[in-house]
Amino acid sequence: MKELAPIGISTYGRADHLRRTVEALQRNTLARESEVFFFSDAPRQGDESRVREVRAFLRTVDGFKAVHILERTENSRIANNRGGMEMLLDRYGKVIFLEEDVVTAPGFLAFMNGALSFYENDERIGSVSGYCPPMAIPPGYEKDVFFLTRLNPWGMGLWKRYYKMNSYITDACFSEVFTDRKRLKALSNSVGEEALEFIQMDFERRLDAGDMKSIFWQFYDKKLTVYPRKSLVRSIGQDGSGFHMGAAEKWDVDELWDKVQGFEYSQEVWVDESIRKSHYKFYKVHAIHKLISFLQRIGVYKYMQPMVRQVKMLGGGWRKN
């Protein structure tokens, strides 16, 4: 294996989540051979004590080859996250990046470094994911990896040669895809229905999401993401504690992959149709979400909200996607 990729972790004000993330990473087989960089965002008004607690914890972290702490003096989620990625990519050419609420399996770093090395010069590959959604994998599928168009940011590997987190979607490219029914359907089939609205929101600057930019560009540029057959990460931030995600159980995985070495990567790069269909089904938008989006677009959702709430209750078992 070539030189190990640096690990970047963006943090803000959730010390308990960060502690669990760091403790899991310390148990990785390659932890003591890896350098980790913590990017600590400055507090918003009222969050000063939370950020102080995070920074105090960071000064106690060990168990890695080297620990670097970079503390911002001005609050900016985007500068902290993407700025951190770009700094490491400029310096090392590759990076393993996660946020303060991503717990990893002991084999995570081995898988990510192996994939970053194996596919380093493979222009068909745009990113590496440590996360595998809790979707059905065909029983006979025995390879350690599979490929999909959709990037996943929960523990991802990136190269400087293909970095799209800050590449805003142009008018021409957006129109080329979203006004062509055939290409729009292909995008939906490749990355999942629920991404379409977020991509549009990002294009319209109602949202500034690096993952949605990358998801669009990977489809447009015909790039794929390498996924592990079983998840090596679990997000613990879907508990309502974050700024951009409410409480949800949809993405929970029952258990992480216990494999720690000997991951095998395939030079045959293709999208398995059975896995793609399973992925599409996992990200399929609930009918009630489609109704809400439509009502919001035409500006009447606030008037219809009580009725929509009643529909949710009658539906039973409805979960936020």
Task: Describe the model.
The protein has 321 residues and is α/β, with parallel strands linked by helices. It has a domain at 286-321. It has eleven helices and ten strands. It has helices at residues 15-26, 48-58, 77-92, 108-118, 171-178, 181-191, 193-203, 210-220, 273-282, 287-297, 301-315, and strands at 7-11, 35-40, 66-71, 94-99, 102-104, 125-129, 145-148, 156-159, 224-228, 233-235. The protein has an eight-stranded mixed sheet with strand order 3-2-1-4-8-6-9-7, with helices on both faces. A two-stranded antiparallel ribbon has the order 5-10. Strand 1, helix 1 (15-26) and strand 2 form a beta-alpha-beta unit. The longest helix is centred in the first third of the chain and has 16 residues, at 77-92. It starts with 6 loop residues before the first strand and ends in a 6-residue tail after the last helix. The model is unreliable at 242-247, 287-298 and 308-321 (pLDDT under 50).
